[in-house]
Protein 1
Amino acid sequence: MYTTNTKQLTAMRRVVYASARAFVSPRMEGGGNPVNIFVSSGPTTSDERVDLAKTCPWESVVIENDTESSNNSGSLPIFHFFMPSGEEVSFCGHAAIGACSFLANKKSIISNKSSTEVASVPFLTAVDGAKYNSRVMGNEVELVMGMQHYETECNPQSCSLKDILSELGLDMSDIPSSDDGISWPTYINSSVARRKTLIPIRTADRLHAATPPLNPTKFREMCDSIDDSTGIYLYSTFTQSEIDGSVAKGSELAFECRQFPRSSGYPEDPATGIAAGALAASLHKRQIIKSRDGIYRMYQGTSMGRPSKIQVKIGGNKSKETNPSLDISYSGLVVFDSLSHSDLK
């Protein structure tokens, strides 16, 4: 359960600061991807938002036009997504999930009570002005998005798959063979927001044998050379019953994943919504591995001791056209760890 800590300062604008974890695994403790959420009672400048983001060791979101804080009932909340460096980005899946949960459950979070409310939370993204909607059911959030899916093959002349694997402590023998007749998305850049490079690994054991980049500078240059990839997303398959004995779907496959970002201030990510969405979109394009309920289940963060679960459902265009428009639904659990209040100086 979260704790509350209040600083009394002299400025007029009160900032609510919440620390949360999104895409938490329901069966294992300590998981999820951390995000810091800031809500100001008044307008913030670009410099102020960057300064807030730089106080965080991971991604953050600054919310403007929160109707309850600003009394601006005619405007949708605007989400500013940030990396720890202070770089503002167009979208961050787990940050959006956390922010929507906070806005829907703010009263119960502040009063330190659990919530079972169902609410709709629409919002705008600051960078591109896109509008999205979410459905919040207690601590579970479903985020529905209409996104364009882009996919390109990586140029091996710029950087080879072998070199990428070597930098992560793997080799070409870790790539699955084609004996099963499935053409897994291999060494391609897939994007529903930012480019992620998809690489299948033959077993979960070999996936967890991968190590963070040996040389971060070299790794960033490698990612830059393959069309400015923002990270390498390794994935392997396993049956659902291997990780969740309560689900009687032993023949259905889920995915164990790991994401090594190009340069985010940390070597590995415990849950990456846009990467999970990119993988699901590329699998959907090839019409492979469909569960009975149409949900792709991605598990991540296991090797970090921060197990996470991301559920992705793809709808819309089912053709193999080049850049189809898809309806992408993300869902996951959110846990709040701390809450504080301060004033902007």
Protein 2
Amino acid sequence: MATEGPRGSCTVGTVQGPYHPTAHPPASINGVAMAGPRCEHKNLLTPPPLSTVRPQQALVEWPDFVNSYASWWASHVLDWLKYGRHILVVHYEDLKQNLVSQLQKMVAFLNVSVTEDRLLCVENNRDGNFKRSGARQKGFEPFTKEMKDLINKYIVIVDKALRDRNFTGLPKEYLPR
């Protein structure tokens, strides 16, 4: 999601929805980069990878995390939709599927000039040096029915709010089945 910030600065980041039990990466705010007088990069919130959550730990910490993060994610997106004046919604799945065209949209939205070579360089290095190798399978189901229902409720609310503002709704893999 990219938005015009205070005093002409811009906020750019990708907002990936709350971790849906059937979706593949866990929920995260991938980052917020601020363009303007100061330039920062922050990783706002990243849940513990499911592969590192031990069943005993999940009984205590995981329910609290899911309950607080799901509502935080929804209110964060809804606030941007309500108070943002100039918004570009970019879904993580769209970046993965069509990186260069999504980057072109973001560059145009921010009114920044970037050469085609620079965009192709990003495309050619999309895997990066810091990517984890291989997905580890979880050995247990960390989501209770109540957690899944809570997450699904927020997904439906955010999807409707996006569509009401004439944005693309959430990717289908996030929508409740």
Protein 3
Amino acid sequence: MQDTRLVWPTSLPFESSSLLLPTTIQQSSKMIAKKTKLVDLPADVLLRILALCGVEDAVRIEMMCKFLRDVVATRHLWLTHLRGLPNECPPNLPPHVSLESLDCTGLKTLVVRAVRGGRNWNSLSPKVTREIKVIVKNPIRKRALGVTNAIRKRVLVVTNAIRKRALVVTDATLVPGGDYLVVEWKTHLSLWDGYLQLLEVSNGEKIWLYPDPDYSCSVSRKLWAYGVGRISENVLRVATAETDYVEDKMMVIKVFEIDLRQRRSEEIYNHRLNDINPCNLYLEGDHIVLVGCETNLMFLNWKSSCCANLESMQVN
């Protein structure tokens, strides 16, 4: 068999010994040097490299030249970066917005904002990137004073209490999308007669108020928890867990559907439960998760009224 290995010369002139290489090695080195240019790599190889790079590195590479800008402007690349986001960098994607509706620019903006926002939030001195001031007003101050005489005679004590006490904001939830705010009002002295108010962030306009002060001032009730879910651009759902001591002491779960465009609301679900006093409520689609004050969990499908208690795992 013929030996095809390269053989180095045994003796070379001094002046050319540092420059002379075998012909095959010279050609190989030139070929390798030529292929090391980033723009000479195939597009699929570039996409694999960019997928392994960080988000900020991909943004910097995009600004190098038009060819690389076109390669980075690939929807599959930003979908890969979106799936690879860590837990501390959640994307601001409302549930009513699907990934299919976002183009490459929208995906890139979503990923870049998530990475930069997560880095800012987890830094030692996070900076305020956006500040919005929403003026909230007492939802029952004027309406409670206008209670009719018939109601005033029946609930004189309650009416006087409403007049004297002041409501304070105890909780606020920004609706997915950032354009609406749910504010919870309660009193200084007790947790009774909680109110939920839906406001538009841009102008502070009141969209929805629950319950109606004109009809709730004679009812002893306690609002335990609430949850917000966005179905579409113009439809919200709000779930509440409350106790009504006029009829019984059972927990009442209600779901309201709010039409943001028509400024109308409808109660679409009302169900009574036992054995749980929730301190938190989460609404996700057709399901409600109730987190009890005694560390028990209850899962409820409000469309089928089927619930399961995680502590005992008994399906009711």
Protein 4
Amino acid sequence: MIALRTTSHFVSPKTLFLIRLFFVALLLTYFIWEVVVEKLQYYRFLTNLSWMGILFYMVYATTATYNYTQDTKYRVQWNGIFDWLFASAATIAPAVTVIYWAALNSSFVQAVDSDAGFAVRLLWGHILNTVIMLIDLLLSRVPMKASTSFAVVLTMVAYVGYTILLKKVFGIDWPYGFMKTIFEDSEPAIVGVICVVGVIATILLFFVMYALTRLRDSLGQKKAPKKDLETIQHRQSYQNPQYYPNNSYTQRPLEAPPRQSVDVNPALLQRSDTQFSDESSFITNGK
């Protein structure tokens, strides 16, 4: 339900909205900065594509949170696509950070001495992505379903296929040197083993983030009251056809409440209204 994705165990919906709005500003600033500098080269790197995914998710989540706090007739719907987007962003962001600082940080070391602006961009892209997603994951109540792990793995596989397509069809160089080593200089068996290890690592990282959401919910349930009146009220408004003309609630035929049958004494219908001083005389079993 949308209430789970636009509220928090620890802060008010308005506070969550302001935090997400601040993150949108950071994400959008970095995105514009990188596109202006890198141009089309920007879209080769997993770091940048995952940053775009975080930006799309955060814009939608911010809009949904704002609508949740306002009495507006238009409210966004949250569906499985955005659950997948959240799970992918929450998993790939820390993967990018770990891979970069473990294996690719030489570019940052060089940039510190030669190009301070580039060094700042590297810090933004490989630290803030994880920080933003961790804060949103821990503050919000967006769930991660175990079944979504397969969609996250497919996302990573799609990126690898995308880079191979760029190289083989368009002649665009590999975004990372280790990909050239894997796909051009290694035996097919080695490539297969590396791909299997990559899939397993992605699944393990997904379930680390999944465990964090469960821990968050466990701590939140201990802190929050069992009955969240604000959430209940918003759930009721969510079912209001006035606000949701296409909601599934309105697809069901409206049923009038059952009427209580009342027996009327026919003899009383012959009398004038002035004789009905006692209203209970209408009821047969009250004669």
